[in-house]
């Protein structure tokens, strides 16, 4: 079967691969992987959630999230505090160091956005956003 390297789907896939490599490399510089970064970013937006909410967001099993949180706690990025509503639940929040890491994560994605749009005019960026919205809606 012949692969069409000029197809839009192939170009989107290639761009996604390049983005993933870029983000992975940048996150590695700050001592994180993608799952850890997604966790910190989620906790920055939704402080004091429970582990089940995080597992649902990440699409991971509870045991995987438990191990992930242990690593982030050991790095002093996440804190677990007993819920006042339910003694069996722990609320998750970012530590001061975790909040600082989130700023670094956001800077990485701002750098990625700049890399993607740096050679484009504002009108081209607007047009691309409209076209991507249409492509996403098709699914």
What would you note in describing this structure?
- The structure is a single chain.
- This protein has 139 residues and is mostly helical.
- The protein has one domain: Arc Repressor Mutant, subunit A (Orthogonal Bundle), CATH 1.10.10.
- Helix content is 67%, strand content 9%.
- The protein is built from 6 helices and 3 strands; from the N terminus they run ααβααββαα.
- A 3-stranded antiparallel β-sheet has the order 1-3-2.
- Helix 1 (8-29) packs antiparallel against helix 5 (96-117), helix 2 (34-45) packs across helix 5 and helix 3 (51-58) packs across helix 4 (62-74).
- The longest helix has 22 residues, at 8-29.
CATH C-level: Mainly Alpha
Any idea of the CATH topology?
Answer: Arc Repressor Mutant, subunit A
Task: Give the termini separation.
Answer: 25 Å
Supply the helix-strand structural class: mainly alpha
Radius of gyration: 19 Å
- Overall pLDDT: 93
Pfam families: MarR_2
Protein name: MarR family transcriptional regulator
Keywords: DNA-binding, Transcription, Transcription regulation
InterPro entries: HTH_MarR-typ
Topology of helices and strands:
Elements: H1 8-29, H2 34-45, E1 49-50, H3 51-58, H4 62-74, E2 78-82, E3 90-94, H5 96-117, H6 122-137
Antiparallel strand pairs: 1-3, 2-3
Helix pairs in contact: 1-5, 2-5, 3-4
């Amino acid at each position: 079967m012949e692969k069409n390297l000029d197809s839009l789907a192939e170009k989107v896939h290639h761009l996604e691969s390049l983005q993933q490599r870029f983000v992975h490399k940048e996150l590695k510089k700050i001592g994180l992987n993608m799952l850890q970064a997604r966790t910190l970013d989620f906790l920055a937006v939704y402080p004091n959630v429970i582990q089940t909410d995080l597992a649902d967001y990440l699409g991971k099993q509870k045991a995987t999230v438990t191990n992930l949180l242990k690593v982030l706690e050991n790095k002093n990025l996440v804190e677990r505090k007993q819920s006042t509503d339910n003694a069996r639940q722990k609320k998750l929040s970012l530590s001061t160091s975790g909040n600082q890491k989130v700023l670094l994560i956001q800077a990485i994605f701002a750098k990625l956005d700049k890399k993607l749009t740096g050679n484009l005019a504002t009108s081209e960026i607007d047009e691309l956003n409209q076209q991507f919205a249409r492509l996403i809606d098709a699914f």
